[in-house]
Amino acid sequence: MPLEPIFPEQNQNSLWRPVQPAEILRFVHSLLQAYEVVGAQRKRGRIILDQLQDAADLLLEFPPAVHSPKKFLFPNWDQLFRFKLDNNILLEAETTTPPRIIFGMHPCDLHAVKILDDCLFEGETDSAYRAKREATLLVGVDCTPDEYCFCTSLGTDRIAHGFDLFLHRRDGHYLIQSGSERGKQLLYNHAPEVVADAAEAPLPLQIKQCSTRLKFPAETLPALMENAYDDPVWKRLGKDCLGCGSCTLLCPSCYCFNVQDKLEVNLKEGQRIRTWDSCQFDQFAKVSDGENFRSSQSDRQRHRFYRKYKYLWDQHQRTACVGCGRCSRECLSHIEPTEVLNQMFADNLQPERPSAPGIEYQPQMAEIIARKKLSPEDLLFRLRLPEKFTFTPGSFIQISVFGLGEAPFSIASAPDGGREIDLVIRKAGALTQALHRARKGDMIGIRGPFGSGYSIDKMLGQDLLLVAGGRGLIALRSLLLSLLARRRDFGRITLLCAARSIDSMLFREDLLDWHRSGEMDCRFAVNEEENEWGIPSGDISYLFKDLEINSQRTIAAVSGPPGMYRHINPLLFRMGLHDENIYLNLERHMKCGLGKCGKCRINNVCVCECGPIFPYSSIKHLAEAIER
Amino acid sequence: MKKTRIGFFDFTGCEGCQLTVLNLEQDLLEILELVELVEFREVMSEQAGHLDIAFVEGSVCRQQDREQLKKIRQRTDILVALGACADNGGVNALGSDRGPELMCQQVYASHLPHLQTDPPQALSEVVPVDYRVPGCPIDGHEFLAVLQALLLKRQPDLPTFAVCVECKLAEYPCSFDHGEICLGPVTRAGCRAICIDGGDRCRGCRGLIENPRTSPYHRLLEEHGLTVDDILDQYRTFNIGEQKSES
Asked: B10: domain range?
């Protein structure tokens, strides 16, 4: 059932009235007769947000440090239901939400409520939150930013709708604006003398000034974060962070929670409650067998920043941060979002590229320095590039011949930081036929590298099982050469390699060398009954017979024709390999390499950007990935 | 159904933890419906045989204490350390950096051999301890929660996060903001930041969290002008055992 918006967009006939402090006092006094009114007030020498007893205690000008209204809309202790232990009887929650007014919300906190709405109304509506949200009227008030506020960088220093009433501060008095029918009704019922006043002209949105700010437009945050996953800044935050969770607890839009049972003393009944949790706590991503999916404080801080500035932006097109500064104001280690993000922005400044139109599609020229026949259809080319070249094994490059176009090819050599790479070109269409005619010394166009390949770091200390079918060996050769370059850093290496025939098998000399080297276990199969190598006849699944691996410490890299994965994956699962330890090579037609043309998409995932090497765990939900 | 038999015992300590249990008043009466209190020196003189749960307060300072504790261990299924002294030596362990004679001399300024004790030990240094209720004194509600869990044959769990969490939730002002050194960032929560509420700072009576971020914490203390010795002094009031095992 589609949800009715709680706040309709601000209607044109907003009510605008001047209102004097004394009138506000009478208004609040009247509200207190009918509602629970929550507001900032002084208690025991501190300013806190709490239920108001006396209208005279309400503060309308208070510092941004006061806790956010999340305290009332999504409280730390919320009963979900009650139960009786004896006969396992479930009872409704006891909580009824009183009609409530939060009187005095800064614009940033009103924005934060929109974020909570985004998240808690999405999918299955959170009914406990909805009940409170519906029973609560929000009255906004202007504020003065302090040195921690950075709302102006996020556009949350002002608000046009999302409140029932808003008090704009003028000289010595306020201008009250209605933002909803409910708000207007509130004025009619509880401040008729204000409504009776002459209307004032609507104020344009008031823009504030913050000394703390982002040095770049907030809209670039998601793109900045896209490339910042391995930024050194996370390590630094991990070292600085006390893990106390204050940042998330005080955040007006953090809503992650824990659910637990609390029993009455008599042990006969109890309640299931939810309490705030924090992604900064040790146990937040820990599961019962002891595994912790974010085991270091760096991981946890990174997660927090990604949630705030990337993940929720991707879903709802706004940051989940409103720049209220509560996290940095209370952080004993002085972790400040603007400082972190500005630093990240400075680190990621790309060297100025020539900005001629279309430059990203223009190839550079590379020289063919060697060519060698690998099979009747396949030639191995060694290219010398104009400059040094880094890539991860499994990445690809675009080769072009003017007049015939461009096509992607896997890099067959290991990244060594130099200028030379190997490519295998199979004679198929016009472009590859032209390449087969090219000679040593000829120049061809290259563009790239593109894509995301195998993570060697994840493989350190692990056993490796490489499964190559046919031309799938090309990408795996790049990986295998990288592994052999630092053989001692890895455990057992097993290569299963199959092809149609001995003749069609690529890199035959390499295969024999590897087999003889004793550094790895090589097993081969071909579809020929009688063959010159005297190896078994059958498809690649034949090589899994008698294969013994330690599934807990093995990472598999499977690369072959699309149909192969359907047969091989079940064998790997049966051996007990984890989803995240199975890497598949899901090459598609990666035409532009820039994540734009759309030709290589598997469902919504762009292969040229996120792949072509994917851990199974990241693509198993994609219907087009393997089952087609 | 047979009621769970529980007993309370004490060694060197102020008995404030047992007093906290007695102060539970109505809740205590309710829980007594579910258990059989068979031994509790504070309120009764009987001696029972086998126990399901023994709550033991105080640190262990003499040979005869050690033997008595071993006997309690033998006749109880579950042994719970009640309060800081039992849990990690508590304030009693403060004197463990000097010999018993010197200590006696410093405290009483005279030679009193009958008052000399061995360095105070936590219960777990003498017998296996199954569960713990930390704090000086314990938090009554946490005691109830541990007992409830044991009655339901569930693993009792203590908060894994720091006192800062409860302090922020209660909207208390940060001790560091008014120049006080506070152990809240590394101390296990569960006390609802009661000392901060009372205008004091956290002195770490509930022991350190499992994964205290000591390096940023020490950096913070250094920012506030503390030396390494000052920092150790901060820990020393309640966390001598833990500091020993960490170094």
From this structure: 4-151
